[in-house]
């Protein structure tokens, strides 16, 4: 069994992973949900405007959630945070000053270069929205410091709660601000400014909560400025490089959105689509982004937590346990990613109508669904490599995939439109996932799934797809139309049936052991329910 022999500290880490997973899951739900009323109010052009600046907002918050905190917590554990708390606090403060200098410079640079960036995107009207969104950069240093400090001493709750605070405030503010803008008839660019302002407000709320937590921490120690300055000199290169590299795996979708932001509209306009039509088509393509992000929540959350766990076991010489952690995370990603991809392909049309009022862009959404599997593999394999202190290789593989994505856009978008952009995304991610998997398997850094397990996974997917085909046929017999209510009933019923079937098969076919299921709340509760009914677990 994967978890046998794990000590109390490892149990605490897995419990922390569940806190972070629950917070990230809720955050992804909110991130997907607020885009629905936003698109419904601002239209596809309004969604296009927001998605042009979202990569900047998302990159800032991912480095503050997954990148620099992971780097800081890893350095603290290497220095023995439990045994040397004063040194750990000095390291945290040194990291804060470094990040403040870097992000202050980036904020200033963005303020001056926004007109050039907007023109490069093919839309000069985005200039002021980019400048407004840049304010998020100023909150990254403090958020990263506090999250990293507490993760370094094994406390995941501040990271989880702060993530929820940021997402709740941002989502509510985006909906509220956009509603006011639309009621005043100010148009899609005003809606984009409102969404950017709401994102800044969410980051400020997150920093405010963490400030309260930081001020209330136990055993506050005075630190010497000279010690902090010296620590800055000691860690500056390692910390900044590790932080950026650690965030790279979680930024897979954002990197591709950066590519799309600079290429899709320009290429569509060259295809003879007018400026307004090109922006609307880009908005239709962007409908798939929240669904893809939601589908990779487990992989993202476990990737963030697997890195320090693998480092912890590697530092103690327990290579087998390290490979077991990585193997469990990989199997969980394969299971959830493949099920999500297959399910979304099957019910893409009713989901699209349910969320975005019509079926426009369904073909591109079906193609994008395949990225759910590859993106999860990328996140986990990147985390495994980072856990073994191989920080550069994941970035090289990610860059290779991004190059394939860029080339794919240039070749496919002029011919196939937004379906070409979707296909380029899948091709790029497939290349990165393949290279990353070969690397971790070559170094035996992960315990591979058995052939029997892969066979069971394939059979479970076949059963789910068959059930969804039957369910879809049944709905078509009951009603032939494209009403939003009908689409919602079909999508939600099919999704619920798929989840229940997969949960039952996990237990019946032992896709995960009993001890592994203890770390997965849904399956743990299913085990408890079956046990109460007298079934042997």
**Residue ranges: pLDDT <50 for 5 or more in a row?**
1-6
Radius of gyration: 23 Å
Task: List the secondary-structure elements in sequence, H or E.
Answer: HHHHHHHHHHHHHHHHHHHH
Q: What is the structural class?
A: mainly alpha
Arithmetic mean pLDDT: 82
Tell me the helix content.
Answer: over 70%
Can you put this structure into words, describing what you see?
The protein has about 525 residues and is mainly alpha-helical. The protein has a domain at about 10-250. Helices cover about 85% and strands about 0% of the residues. It is built from 20 helices and no strands. The chain has helices spanning about 10-80, 85-120, 125-135, 140-150, 155-185, 190-215, 225-250, 250-270, 275-285, 290-295, 295-315, 320-355, 360-370, 370-385, 390-415, 420-440, 450-480, 485-510, 515, 520-530. The longest helix is centred in the N-terminal third of the chain and has 71 residues, at about 10-80. The chain is globular. The relative contact order is 0.11. Mean pLDDT is about 80; it is low at about 1-5. This is Polysaccharide transporter, PST family. It is a multi-pass membrane protein. Pfam families: Polysacc_synt. Keywords: Cell membrane, Membrane, Transmembrane, Transmembrane helix. One of its GO terms (cellular component) is plasma membrane.
What is the element layout, followed by pairings?
Elements: H1 8-78, H2 85-120, H3 127-133, H4 140-152, H5 157-183, H6 188-215, H7 225-248, H8 252-270, H9 275-286, H10 288-295, H11 297-315, H12 319-356, H13 362-369, H14 371-387, H15 392-416, H16 418-442, H17 451-478, H18 484-508, H19 514-517, H20 521-532
Helix pairs in contact: 1-4, 1-5, 1-6, 1-7, 1-8, 1-9, 1-10, 1-11, 2-3, 2-4, 2-7, 3-6, 4-6, 5-6, 8-9, 8-15, 8-16, 9-16, 11-12, 11-14, 12-13, 12-14, 12-17, 12-18, 13-16, 14-15, 14-16, 15-16, 17-18, 18-20
């Amino acid at each position: 069994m994967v978890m046998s022999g794990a000590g109390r500290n490892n149990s605490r880490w897995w419990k922390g992973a569940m806190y972070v997973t629950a917070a990230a899951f809720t955050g992804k739900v909110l991130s997907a949900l607020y885009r629905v009323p936003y698109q419904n109010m601002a239209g596809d052009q309004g969604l296009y405007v927001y998605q042009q600046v979202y990569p900047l907002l998302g990159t800032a918050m991912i480095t503050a959630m997954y990148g620099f905190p992971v780097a800081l917590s890893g350095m603290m554990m290497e220095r023995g945070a439990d045994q040397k708390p004063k040194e750990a606090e000095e390291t945290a403060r040194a990291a804060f000053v470094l990040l403040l200098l870097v992000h202050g410079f980036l904020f200033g640079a963005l303020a001056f270069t926004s007109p050039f960036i907007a023109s490069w995107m093919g839309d000069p009207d985005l200039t002021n929205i980019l400048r407004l969104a840049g304010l998020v950069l100023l909150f990254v240093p403090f958020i990263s410091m506090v999250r990293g400090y507490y993760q370094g001493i094994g406390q995941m709750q501040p990271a989880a709660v702060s993530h929820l605070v940021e997402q709740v405030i941002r989502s509510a503010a985006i909906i509220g601000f956009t509603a006011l803008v639309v009621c005043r008839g100010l148009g899609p660019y005003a809606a984009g400014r409102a969404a950017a302002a709401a994102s800044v407000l969410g980051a400020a709320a997150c920093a405010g909560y963490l400030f309260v937590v930081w001020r209330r921490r136990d055993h506050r120690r005075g630190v010497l400025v000279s010690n902090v300055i010296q620590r800055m000199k000691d860690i500056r290169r390692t910390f900044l490089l590790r932080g950026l590299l650690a965030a790279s795996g979680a930024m897979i979708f954002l990197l591709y959105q950066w590519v799309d932001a600079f290429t899709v509209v320009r290429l569509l306009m060259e295809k003879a689509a007018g400026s307004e039509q090109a922006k609307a088509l880009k908005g239709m393509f962007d409908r798939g982004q929240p669904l893809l992000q939601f589908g990779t929540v487990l992989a993202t959350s476990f990737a963030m937590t697997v890195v320090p766990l693998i480092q912890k076991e590697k530092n103690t010489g327990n290579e087998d346990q390290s490979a077991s952690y990585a193997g469990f995370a990989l199997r969980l990603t394969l299971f959830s990613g493949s099920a999500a991809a297959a399910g979304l392909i099957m019910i893409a049309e009713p989901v699209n109508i349910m969320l975005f009022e019509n079926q426009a862009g369904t073909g591109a959404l079906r193609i994008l669904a395949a990225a759910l599997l590859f993106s999860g593999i990328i996140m986990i394999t990147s985390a495994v490599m980072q856990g073994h202190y191989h920080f550069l290789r994941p970035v090289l593989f990610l860059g290779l995939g991004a190059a394939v994505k860029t080339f794919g856009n240039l070749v496919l978008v002029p011919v196939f439109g937004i379906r070409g952009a979707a296909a380029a995304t899948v091709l790029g991610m497939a290349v990165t996932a393949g290279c990353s998997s070969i690397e971790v398997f070559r170094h035996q850094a992960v315990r591979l799934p058995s052939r029997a397990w892969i066979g069971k996974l394939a059979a479970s997917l076949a059963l789910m797809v068959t059930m969804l085909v039957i369910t879809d046929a049944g709905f078509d017999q009951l009603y032939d139309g494209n009403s939003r209510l009908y689409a919602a009933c079909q999508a939600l019923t099919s999704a619920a049936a798929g989840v229940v079937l997969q949960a039952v098969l996990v237990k019946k076919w032992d896709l995960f052991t009993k001890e592994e299921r203890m770390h997965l709340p849904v399956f743990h509760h299913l085990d408890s329910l079956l046990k109460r009914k007298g079934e042997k677990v």
